[in-house]
Amino acid sequence: MIDIHCHILPGVDDGPLTIEESIVMAREAVKEGIHTIIATPHHRNNKYENSKTTILQKLSILKKEIIKENIPLTILPGQENRIFGEILEDYQKGEILTLNHSDYLFIEFPTSSVPRYAERLLYDIQIEGLTPIIVHPERNKELLENPDILYNLVKNGALTQVTAASVAGYFGKSIKKFSTQLLEHNLTHFVASDAHNTHNRTFKLNEAYELIARDIGQDYRNILLENSEKVSLGEKVYSEIPQLIKKKKFLGIF
Ligand code: FE
Predict the structure, then answer these.
(1) Over the range 134-150, which residues count as b (16 or more CB within 10 Å of their CB) and which as e?
(2) Residue 177, pLDDT above cutoff 80
(3) Cα 30 from Cα 35, distance rounded (Å)
């Protein structure tokens, strides 16, 4: 299994502070059945800045340690970019990392809103030859209230990734329900852990995939698993035509 969103690099963000903690996470990942992780530290999220050079340096240190510790885990480079207006300029300057040097670029929205310029920027990113992947849309307040915004972005070529713990219910009932709706309406293309540690923000990938297989279907689970693999190899992923999430109308008798 491949996990395309994980905070496993030490001392770069709110993930592990030390390399020892990263190693504990790596062992936990292997126990979960993960053989490859794309390390995606936060970038430009108002708290952490991790440009391409920093990430590649930290990654090479962790990779050596993982080999030394004999852990059967491959770690690939990535970056979780909070959306900002100059992202393409920074990409051209070589400060932005795609997922394992592919054409797939992680984009995070602020927790509670979607910037008005997002639609245009996601379009421009595609003109540049990149495919934006919106991370954890299910945890964004504006998208939760107005899923049509996400529908439009996906219809216009963006992909999305839901968090395993959201699917499994660890972020609460409404986020779990929204995650299921996104899966059912072809509005998401990947499940990933977004793990930060081994206690309160851990992997939960097996749990999520089992629920998806049970509630939505084995085939869909397999497609999601394959999509993560394809992203890590820079291949085209599987996506179906997105559907609008219809709000249930009140059918009471007046
Ligand atoms: Fe993250």
Answers:
(1) bbbbbbbebbbeebebb
(2) yes
(3) 6
Ligand 1 centroid – CA 240 distance (Å): 25
Span 30-36, mean pLDDT? 98
Distance 193 CA to ligand 1 centre (A): 8
- Domains and their CATH numbers in the chain: 2-233 (3.20.20.140)
Nearest C-alpha neighbor of 247 from the set 110, 112, 151: 151
Q: Is the pLDDT of residue 252 over 70?
A: no
Query: Which are the contacts of 206, defined by CB distance < 8 A and separation ≥ 6?
Result: 32, 33
pLDDT digits (tens, 9 = 90+) for 225-235: 999 999 999 99
pLDDT at 251: 56
pTM beyond 0.90: the answer is yes
Instruction: Quote the percentage of the chain above a pLDDT of 70.
Output: 97
Cα–Cα distance measured from residue 164 to residue 161, given in angstroms and rounded to the nearest whole number: 9
Alpha-carbon distances, residue 216 vs 186, 223, 228 (angstroms): 11, 12, 18
Identify the residue whose tokens are 């986020």.
Answer: 175
CA–centroid distance, residue 78 to ligand 1 (Å):
11
193-220 mean pLDDT: 97
For residue 223, report the distance from its CA to the centre of ligand 1, in Å. Answer: 22
The encoded tokens of residue 227 equal 């999509």
Query: What's the pLDDT at 44?
Result: 95
- Other C-beta atoms within 10 Å of 169: how many? 17
